[in-house]
Amino acid sequence: MTKLVVKGRRRLHGETTVQGAKNSALPILAAALLTGGENVFFNCPHLSDVEASCAILRYLGGTAKREDSALLVDCTGVDRWKIPDELMRKTRSSIVFLGAVLARTGRARLSLPGGCEIGMRPIDLHLRALRAMGAAISERHGYLDCKAPHGLHGAKITLSFPSVGATEDIMIAASTADGTTTISNAAREPEIGDLAAYLNKCGAKIYGAGEGVVVIDGVPSLSAAAHTMIPDRIVAATLLSCAAATGSELVLRGAVSAHLGAVISVLEEGGCRFACDGGDLRITAPERLKSLRVIRTMPYPGFPTDAQAPVMAAAATADGTSVMIENIFENRYRHVPALCRMGAQIRTEGKVAVIEGTRHLYGAKVEATDLRGAAALVTAALAAEGTGEITGVHYLERGYDGLEQTLTALGADVKKI
Ligand code: EPZ
């Protein structure tokens, strides 16, 4: 059983480059299914979720291989439309392949992704939109069977919730649909803009990505392109949380401060100071964080739900009480019991978590239960007295490309055993 052993109470210092965004890479790899020729992706992080997406592409008849700092993906040979269970289960976000496979082959059969550690993860918004675009979809025995024998056509879609995955799925499917698709109440996350930037390089005609209404004029076909993923704003938020929890000063090279507005303002409330010069973001944390007041997770540009866990770990060390309200997922406090085992004073009631900061977190044997929860345990262990042991490290590897090496290079004592 792999575990991370962390000796806490060490200040971090220095600078590090933020990895490419997982939540850009996953939809972009699905979108590559629509292209002919060789795509060249730069700044694509080495993550198990990325590997799972590459495995799906290979299974469907494509190729995906690393060459130096690039990931080369060629989907010219794609001729399959069934994604087997074992490949679907590896990552929750594989639902974003639905629109891509359907648009590419006219058919798709994949197992319902099912819930995961943080919630039910329904896909009703995906299915409703694709049906509006002409797909016939039946859900039986845990499988989705989809047909679009006459191809997909444009539609006017309004999302009842600005779902990131549904927005991406529709953008991909609409890129080569017959006619124009509009998505109202679309998600605005930076990864939506990154996906649109890639697809437009491939010849798609997508307008308004990152705003509330996205318009996609379908084109007959797309050709491969070269694209550099944007930096991962959630990894950046995690590193900022580590600095805030340990009273450190760090420079994050490549972090896009415009993508981190809500996180920066919360940590400024706690006494952290920020400076951006060029593509670098410098955080200077106080010796001890002050209360972060009230934090509500919201769709972008609000405070990101993915940053809730690591920021909570920093709040657990603060001088004062902070309140968090998790509005996006129904089961995203599963890291709280482990933080409490480390001495954190946290009470949760439904969506609300009340965090009474304490000077005394101490290292303990804890188990991670999901990706961002694992990041919270690492953040807390860095601030804790003594040695902490964190199992469930595979969760971390889904979204963090060598976090232990990054933290060690910044002065932390973190070992993977
Ligand atoms: C994406 O998930 C991210 N994953 C998540 O990051 C992130 O937490 C989430 O967006 C919100 O920002 C990827 O991009 C791969 P949603 P996604 O559809 O697309 C409800 C991480 O840690 N909903 O915006 O699944 C849903 O239940 C991961 O990197 C429906 O009701 O998120 C949830 O309450 C975790 N019906 C809310 O919308 C649907 O059809 C947000 O979900 C779809 C979603």
Give the topology:
Blueprint: E1 3-7, E2 13-17, H1 22-31, E3 35-36, E4 38-42, H2 48-60, E5 63-67, E6 70-74, E7 82-83, H3 85-88, H4 97-105, E8 107-111, H5 124-132, E9 136-140, E10 143-147, E11 156-158, H6 164-175, E12 180-184, H7 190-201, E13 205-207, E14 213-217, E15 222-223, E16 226-228, H8 233-246, E17 249-253, H9 261-269, E18 273-277, E19 280-284, E20 294-296, H10 308-315, E21 321-325, H11 336-341, E22 345-349, E23 352-356, E24 365-367, H12 371-383, E25 387-391, H13 393-399, H14 403-409, E26 413-416
Parallel strand pairs: 2-17, 3-15, 4-16, 7-8, 11-12, 20-21, 24-25
Antiparallel strand pairs: 1-25, 1-26, 4-6, 5-6, 8-10, 9-10, 12-14, 13-14, 17-19, 18-19, 21-23, 22-23
Q: Could you name the key traits of this structure?
A:
single chain, 417 residues, alpha/beta, UDP-n-acetylglucosamine1-carboxyvinyl-transferase, Chain, 4-stranded mixed sheet, 14 helices, 26 strands, 32% helix, binds ligand EPZ
Describe, in plain words, how this protein is organized in 3D.
The protein has helices spanning 22-31, 48-60, 85-88, 97-105, 124-132, 164-175, 190-201, 233-246, 261-269, 308-315, 336-341, 371-383, 393-399, 403-409; strands at residues 3-7, 13-17, 35-36, 38-42, 63-67, 70-74, 82-83, 107-111, 136-140, 143-147, 156-158, 180-184, 205-207, 213-217, 222-223, 226-228, 249-253, 273-277, 280-284, 294-296, 321-325, 345-349, 352-356, 365-367, 387-391, 413-416. With 417 residues, the protein is an alpha/beta fold. It has two domains: 3-19 and 231-416, Alpha-beta prism (UDP-n-acetylglucosamine1-carboxyvinyl-transferase, Chain), CATH 3.65.10.10; 22-228, UDP-n-acetylglucosamine1-carboxyvinyl-transferase, Chain. The protein has a four-stranded mixed beta sheet with strand order 24-25-1-26. The model has no long low-confidence stretch (mean pLDDT 96). Ligand EPZ binds at residues 22-23, 26, 93, 119, 121-126, 161, 163-166, 187, 305-306, 328-329, 371-372, 399.
